[in-house]
Amino acid sequence: MKNILLIIALSLWVSCTTKELKVNIYSPPANPQTNALSACVLSLLQDQSGEATLLGHQDDAAYGVRWFGDSGRSDVLETSGMRPAMIGWDLGKLERGDEKNLDSVPFDFMISEIQTGFDRGSLSTISWHASNPVTGGDSWDTSIPSDIVLNAILPGGTEHEKYKTWLNRLIQLFQEVSPVPIFFRPFHEMNGNWFWWGDADPELFKKLWWFTFDYIHQAGVSNILWVHALDSPKTTSEIRTWYPGDAFVDIIGNDDYKNIAFGQKAEFIRSLETVVDFALSRKKIAALTETGLEGIGRPDWFTTVLLKVLQDNEKTRAISWVLLWRNANAELDRPDHFYAPFPGHPSESDFKRFSEDPSILFDLNFQDNLVNCVP
Ligand code: BMA
């Protein structure tokens, strides 16, 4: 009897301390004024890290390979029976005051979808393919060295006032969807040299991040969770080079297209392990913030590459979400630029099998968890 009591007491103690560990292991939101709903959503993702990964898709509700702007449609829904639990959006051209983004998605549609998506069980992550503030060209305009562009928009720079006007437009959108949380992923792939903010002096890059973070929060925005995403980092020290600090980041991201092609599973796994190692060392979570096999030339890619990689080990299982890049409309945009299947594509049945794996969450799987955060 005494032994039994001892065992009960011991297991109670163990379960209490384990629970405590789980609660205490991750950092609270970087912005101390984060609203309760967004803070709850972040802690949901932190708590389920290691157990489940949200399936995400860029522009999922806006257009697909064979449709554009039809209300309620989604290539992911039409091939799996469920919508993504994470929907990606992009703010490129909002800074100029345009009504549609660089891929022709109207911003008022985006705002209403972010809200209705959340009620259904889909979170939103937003990237920003911002125009070049010096030349007026697009994000890929690297005709002027990135250090010069960054200096121009930082305080004291010739384009600083313009940059603040740009941020004001972003702030307005963030406030319109509030309190719904946004996983904001600005200045992504800053370790590459293809964007105007890329491959700059890391100290200047951090100054840009700090300024942007402070400016947005000083305006009272409380629904932003910050995602810092490199392009397939090889080492944790590469991430550290660009890292603005624990007080300015909530999620460490990995954009990985390089390692996904056939036969590169080992590299794909290694770069995920690298972001998870770094994230855990900062008490943060990690995500695969952009990926996919363009055109899905391998019909079993979802179960034999993506799922296998995500389930490879305890680190890869800790990935919070995986965002497949967009399904460009074949007629209006780019015919072979799609990353999720659409009805009739050879990868459809494989994607359906992928969606049925208990470790991969879609909106219908995630909505019961999300309900815990809604007052
Ligand atoms: C790129 C491509 C472009 C698109 C941009 C922003 O990766 O998909 O066609 O305009 O992202 O979404």
Task: Provide a quick synopsis of the model.
This protein is of the alpha/beta class.
Tell me about this structure.
40% of the residues lie in helices and 14% in strands. It has 12 helices and 11 strands. The strands form 2 sheets. It has an 8-stranded parallel β-barrel. Strands 2-3 form a two-stranded antiparallel sheet. Helix 10 packs parallel to helix 11. The longest helix is centred in the N-terminal third of the chain and has 23 residues. Bound molecules: beta-D-mannopyranose (BMA). The site of beta-D-mannopyranose has 7 residues, from loops. Beta-D-mannopyranose (BMA) binds next to loops.
What are the main properties of this structure?
375 residues; alpha/beta; TIM Barrel; eight-stranded parallel beta barrel; two-stranded antiparallel ribbon; 12 helices; globular; binds beta-D-mannopyranose
Rg result = 21 Å
State the low-pLDDT regions, or none: 4-23
The CATH first-level class comes to Alpha Beta
Beta fraction of the residues? 5-15%
Spatial gap, N to C terminus: 45 Å
Number of strands: 11
Order of helices and strands: HHEEEHEHEHHEHEHEHEHEHEH
